[in-house]
Structure formats: C-alpha cells, structure tokens
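User: We ran a pulldown and think these components assemble together. Before we commit to crystallization trials, I'd like a predicted model of the whole complex to look at. Sequences follow.
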Amino acid sequence: MSIPPSPRQPVRPPAADLTGAMFIAGRRVTGAGVENRSIDARTGRPLQPPYRQASPTDIDEACHAAEAAFDTYRNLHPWHRARFLEAIAQNLTTLTDALVARAHQETGLPTARLAGEVERTTNQLRLFAGVVSEGSWYGARIDPAQPHRTPQPRPDIRQQRIPLGPVAVFGASNFPLAFSVLGGDTASALAAGCPVVVKAHDAHLGTSELAAHAIQAAVHEHGIPQGVFSLVVGDGPTLGTQLVTDPHIQAVGFTGSRTAGLALMRAAASRPQPIPVYAEMSSINPVVLMPSALADRAEALADSFTSSLTLGAGQFCTNPGLLLAIDSPGLKTFLDTAGRAIDADAGATMLTPRIAKAYRIERETVASHPRVDVLAQGSAPDSASPGQAALLTVQADDFIADPELQREMFGAAALVVRCRDLTELTDALRHLEGQLTATVHASPGDHDAVQRLLPLLERRAGRVLFNDWPTGVEVGHAMVHGGPYPATSDARTTSVGSLAIDRFLRPVAYQHAPHDLLPPVLRDDNPYNVPRRVDGVLHP
Amino acid sequence: MSIPPSPRQPVRPPAADLTGAMFIAGRRVTGAGVENRSIDARTGRPLQPPYRQASPTDIDEACHAAEAAFDTYRNLHPWHRARFLEAIAQNLTTLTDALVARAHQETGLPTARLAGEVERTTNQLRLFAGVVSEGSWYGARIDPAQPHRTPQPRPDIRQQRIPLGPVAVFGASNFPLAFSVLGGDTASALAAGCPVVVKAHDAHLGTSELAAHAIQAAVHEHGIPQGVFSLVVGDGPTLGTQLVTDPHIQAVGFTGSRTAGLALMRAAASRPQPIPVYAEMSSINPVVLMPSALADRAEALADSFTSSLTLGAGQFCTNPGLLLAIDSPGLKTFLDTAGRAIDADAGATMLTPRIAKAYRIERETVASHPRVDVLAQGSAPDSASPGQAALLTVQADDFIADPELQREMFGAAALVVRCRDLTELTDALRHLEGQLTATVHASPGDHDAVQRLLPLLERRAGRVLFNDWPTGVEVGHAMVHGGPYPATSDARTTSVGSLAIDRFLRPVAYQHAPHDLLPPVLRDDNPYNVPRRVDGVLHP
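Assistant: Here's a predicted model for the assembly, 1080 residues in total across the polymer chains.
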C-alpha cells in the first residue's frame, strides 16, 4: 500500500477577522451589489461589516472554478482528501472563540450551545475523513471475466462510484455551524469529491466568513485546487435560481423552509438537464404517548417534553410539534404538568426578528383555529426576536378533518391531538404528511399495540424514536435525518451521518478495461485497500 | 438461525394458454374498454386474443391491492422472498416454448435470441433471489449506545433500509421478456419488497399474459399476498398518468422513448407527493476509434462494428449509433469495410410497423441533413416492419454545431463523426448529452491519450467499454445500465444488475428501541445473518 507524497504547505492559521468579502475560488471578492448585513438577534441592530451581494459574473466564476477543480479534486488519493477534511476541522477548532462570539451575536443562541455546535461540526468533518479513508463509499465491485462461459464468454466488468460534480449548498438559519458553510451538506459533498459553492445565510454572514477562512487555510495547506470552495452572498431567490440553474452545478443541498425548498426543486427540474435536490424542509415530528407510559410516568414525560420543546427556542427541524395520546387520567396529569411549565416559561430570543415574527403568526393562526384550545402560553422575553412557548390542544377528529393543522410552527409550540381510542390515534397518524421523525413513548404493556403502529411510523418518518425526544440528532453511521416528502425532497437519503455521502455519488461500470486504464480502486492490487464486492461476495 | 416454516402450496403449473385477461391482484379480469391487439411484426396482421383496456376502477383496485399487500410482503423472511423469486424463474422456464413462440410472432425477433432472453430473465430473477438472501440490501447499521460519553450519553441508534412501496412498471418494446413484465424493474422491485403494477406493452400483450401466469402460479405456491402483482392493459398516456399519479404508487420503473419518459417524469413531479421515476430513455452510445487501434485492425473493427450495429435490427438502447475517429488511412479502411458490409446487409423485421416507420423517419431526417453524407445503405426486407441499415458521416465541426445530430435513430443506423485531430474529437465528446455507454477502441499506443479522455467519458456515461461493443448488457453485480440525463432520468442508479435493488429502498433509523420492537435484521442476535456495519465497521 503506497502512501502518496504529502503536498502540504506550511500551516497558515485561519484569519479571525471579518472583512465583508466573499470567497471565490480562493480569492477574496467584495461584491458590487446591494449590502446585506446580519442583525444582532437580541437588539435588532445591524452588525458590521456589510457584505455586498455577488454579481451574476461572480456566481458564474465560482461555478466555473468548481468545474475546473472537479477532476483533480475527485481523483485525489482518499487519504489526501481525508487529511484535507481533518485540517478544516482543526482550523475550525482554532477559530472556536471567534466563531462562538460572532454566532452568538448573529443568532442569539447561547454560547455553550454554540461551542457544542463547533465541536459537532468538527466531529462531522472528522467522521467523513474516516469514511473517505475506509473506502466503502467507492462501492467497488468486480465481476471477473469468464472466458469459458457458454453460450457466450463473460467480459470483465468493474464498478466504482464517482462524484456527481459541483454542488450548491444552502445552509440553515438554526445551526449557523453544523448545517451551514461547513455543515453536513458541505462535509459530505467534499468527502464525496465534489467542489461546493455555498450561499452564505443572511442571518449569520460573519460566522459564514469565519468558516470560509477555516476552509481556505486548509485548501492552501493541502494544495487543493482553489475552485473546490466558494462562498457567495446574495438575495435568496435570485442567487438561488442562478446557482441551481448553472450548468456546472450537478446537485443541491438545502436546509430551510418548505417555500424555498420547493422553489429550488422547481428550478432544478426546469433545467435542460435536471439535477438532484436534497432539500430538508419541514416537519412537525409526531410523538405518540401510549396509555401505559402515561399511566406510569406522566409527570416525568411532561418534564422531558417541555425541555425538548423549548430547547433552542424550539428552533429545531426535529422539534416535537405534535403530540398524540388517548384521553385518560394519565394524559390529564401530563397536560396539567406540561401546561404549568409552559405557562412559567420565560421565553427566549429567536434567531432573527423575521423568524420570531413568522413564528408568532404561525402560532396565532393555529391557536385561533375554531377547534383549537390554548392550554398554556409562556412569556415573551425582552428581545428584538421574542419567542414565546405555547401548548395547544385539538380533538383527533377535528385534526384529521383539517390538514392545515399540520402546518409547522417553527418555534416552541406544540399541538396535542386528543384521541378517543387507539383506532382514532392510528387514523390520525395515517393522515400525517411525511416527517423527519416519529416518536413513541411506551411501557412494556404498550408493546403489542406499538408493534402494530410500527409499519405506519416507518412509512411516515426517517427516524423512529422510543422513549426519547427527537431534538438531538447524533452524527454517526446509523443516523437518518431525512424522511418522506414534504419533510425532505428525497426520502432515499439522509443529510446527517455518514450515509449522507451517498447523495453525491453515482455508479460507473468499466468493461474489459486494460489494467493501466482502470481506476485505482478497481485494479487487481487494490492500492487504496478499499472493501470490494468480487463476484457478489463482500471482501472488507 | 431459524428457517421460517414453508408456506408452500402444492405446485400449480403456470397456464400456457392466452385468455385476453389482465391480472388484478390474483383475479383474471377482462377489461371493459377499447380492444388492444398485438400485431404480427412480419405480416402486420392483428393477433388473437384481443385485450380490452382497464377501466379507471380496475387501475384503482390494482393499486389499492398493492398497498394492502405491501406491509406483509415487505416483512417476509428474506429467504421466503428469495424462494418466491426462484419459483417465478422456474415457472418462466416451464413456459419457455410458449413464450418464445408468442414473442417471436409479436416482435419478429429470432427464436434463438428469444430463448436466450428467457434464460437471461430467469437468471436475473435468480440473481435477485441471491441478493435478497445475502442481505446487504438491508444496509443494516448499528451505533451502540455510549451511556458514559461526555458531555452527553449517546443513544443506541440502528438503521435498516425499507422498501418504498408499490411500484409502477412500464416495460420496453425491444426486450419482451428481460425488460418487460418480469424484467429487471419488476425483479428488483419485488426483491426490494415492493409490490408491482405492470402496464402490459401493447406490442407484446400475449407474451405479457404468459409472464403473468408465471408469477401468478408462484404467488399461489408461496402464499404471497395477491396484491403483490397486477398486470393491466390500456392506452399508454392515459393509463401511464393514472398509474403514476395514484397515491399508493411510490416509484416508477420505465424503459422506452424519451417523450414517454419525460411525460411520466412530469406526472410524478406534479403529484402532491412527488415520487422517484427511474426512466431509461435514449442513448446513441458514442464509440471512439483511436488512431493506433485503427492503424492496427481497421478491418476487424469494421466487422465487429457492423455485427453490433445490425444485431436485433439495431433495436438496442446500447446500439453503437455514433462513431468518432480522426481522419487517417485506418479510418478510410474502416469506413470502406463497414460500408461494404452495410451495403450488403439484407435488413431485418423490426418490432412493430410503427417502430419501423419511426426509425425510417429518424434515419431519413439525419441522412437528409445538408452536412451529412450517406456512406452506405442496406436493403429493406419484405416485411410489414422493414428495418434497413445505414452508415452516415459528418465532419466534427458540423456535428458540434447542431445538437439535432445527436437524435437517436432507434434501429441499425450509425453516424460517423470525422475529426481533424484529438482536440476536435475531445471537443465533440464534450458536446455530447448523457449516455448509457461510451466505448473506446484503443491499442497500447493510444493509452496515454485515452487516459486523458477517461474523465470526460466517465462523466458522460454509466458504462465505459474498452475494445468491446456496447450491445451486450451483462446481468451481474458490477453492471451499470444507466447514465446521465437524458439517457436516464436518474444517473445515480442502474436498471440492470444487482445494484438495481437500491432504487426501491430508503433508510430508516430506530433510536433507543426496546429489543422486542426492533426489526429482525437489527436485533443483537442477527437472526437473518445479514452483513452489518457496527460503529462504522463492516461485519460481513
């Protein structure tokens, strides 16, 4: 096994200052368009520096450079790519203080949470470095020739997966690190061998620039073609459409609202050559409280529920926004306990004034529904982006009758669906749209009933949880952060965890190739030492 | 390891007679609509029996029954499902004589080729039986809990893939067995655990009914829920739209024209819940003849080329419809030799009068292009569906200037693109649309140049061949029969080979699940003995 010569340049620590520039293929570029500024979430005051929007020519350059870097980058030795990912992680760690301070200003999220998010983001990059080195992602398969097969000889056929091409990434507002410039989409696309062009999220432009410094320093240090990364600033719909319809872009990663996600899907489908869009859009994350669990531990469930609901001002795509339970004394205890906690909740600053306003409107729309009761409501904090918790209830038949009650309230509000019996609860589940998660709280006495619900839950969600809450999303090998439409645009994948690399790969077969023209992972001597399937049998 | 009790019923041999009935979830149903009839390809005479078109209610019933069968079918022990697939294969073998005789009438294809196709179809079913038993398709992953991890414990998370749901299958005209009722789409969907509703191809209705008998007998024998298979007859666009927009249908497999494929894609994208469409549409399969190869063996290349071009009247999606070469004495010898062979070609009966007419129009359109020369043209046979071979040439700059010259001529016609030098040849390749295959004929002296072309060829095609011809598509583990748009609607997959099962699966994670509620493949004791990835490490 040969280790490639290291192309490492002297380490240049990533800059911690903000310049208001974008990065286009390694160059700092100040846009010529309108100024965008992040807003201090708490005070509503615009932050320095301003970031001018990219021109169409800037975008064009970024996409061209990504295409120009693609063949070199995708054919790097996997260990080289892995070390590049590790260097990005290391640079992020170096910038922790600056990232946390700026992200705290821009998003109002607590500094401890943001420090944890830096760690999550670096762990994610390191996870993908490991995945790249291990090599299963190549999907290498070899069907050796059978020259004596009758009636016809079998030719030698070998298969590997290659990356799709440059990827456009649109980060989320609610995870300024883990789902943004260097978040899961970028990490998995870079791991797969795809250059990325990231649209900086307007709500955290400074955090985005810092993350770009981390990757730029690693690009330099590891001699990676500069076009492998660009960060551009612009008006969402305009820039989004230009990026997604650029002929060099071959896939899209997106986390955000359903409206924006659907717009990107339409733009991608309207191209002369349609491309895959991986949009993670919206989910209300149903939680079923089973009868024995409620009888056993209603108060404890209420406590853990309200913690999950109000965590991060409820701004999680996996926030438990819908509870389903059968009327019982246990449910009454649960609602009384949770209601008291929500009533006493002091509220929290949300990510932006705009998100706080949208949440208020969504919550009030559901709360004012003639069939919905407001069980409890917390206080609004003194903030430019105030988030107020709420607990609402509705009868199952009313819930089933009106699909509008499945609207996501992006914040700390949940709707409890009160059911007469298990049949009605099952019926309510059957009427749900696709979800990121579905959760069951059950005691052993509930298991027979849960067993019957399980096929339904599996078909509605990407992750099924038991006696836990959905707000934590582990970054590992077994995680699925995805799910049936409209939770995402493509249920066949995940945007968190090592399987996310699959989104940016496609198989290619090589038939009867001379050995010197075979890709390395398909050569007889397997120089990268990757797992392969030979004649259908796995050789790890 | 427990082997499940066999639910086998007494074997009931599949019927070899034709009744003109469809099959809807195990029932023979005679439609109430317009009569469809296959046509004898050679004589143009309508064949008995007539098949009446399904009513919307029939289609609705088929889709409902597929949904009703889904949960039971998908949760069968994999060995049970594997034995079911093997039984279908066995039943097809039993029906070989009847299938070959009927398909020969309906398609005009030679009986030896059709007998080979029966074998290919049964091998394909047996391949998937092996894939189902082996169990890698579950994609089982286990990240065990880490209760002592800081700052937070890690929950137990496990992942498996589950099938998408009922699949609509639209077979191809040119492979009445291997790409039709029990072809690759149906075999891989059934292997994944998806019920299928097949639209019978109008060009081979009798062959379709016989294939349905083979599966019905296996459904009965193995106690499979009847809704797992339906065969319906109808008008293409009407039935296609109804099937693809039925809410129970969750994916689509299609092989056919670009026009029909794009219509299905649009219908699928317009649903309230969009679904994946795997459409294999059109390809002209570029073949590059490198200078040294032409200098070494121009005559032999011309011979093998004309065999590949005229095989099956050129009615292969992988037919070599485009040659690219640099002008040289070798190319002159190649063209002279191939031209003589084409001029002497007696032609062949095509699949249907309509396909023959469409081919003639496509060929004449390209031939009458002001920049295209007709180098050679074969004879038309005495047939209701006459197919006439042709060899056309064009200069590379003219080819590059007019994308219309990339139109597929579905039949035994090829266009030779004459290039001044390697730069122009590379430029012509760069202008190509996505393809199923790309082929290079090269001698060792060409390898340096081919190495530089390879990244381009990989990005244009799903399969790259060396010193071979693309018309044979092996059914194995390493095959890719797919490729970038517009060759297919989704380059991330293959419609031939064991990887095709991936199209109909999606991952689901189970977090903190009580052991008795875990799916079998994720239980600690691994009762189905499937390969799993534990904490990222593969355990085959």
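The longest helix of chain A spans residues 111-134. That may be worth checking against your pulldown data before setting up trials.

User: Thanks, that helps.
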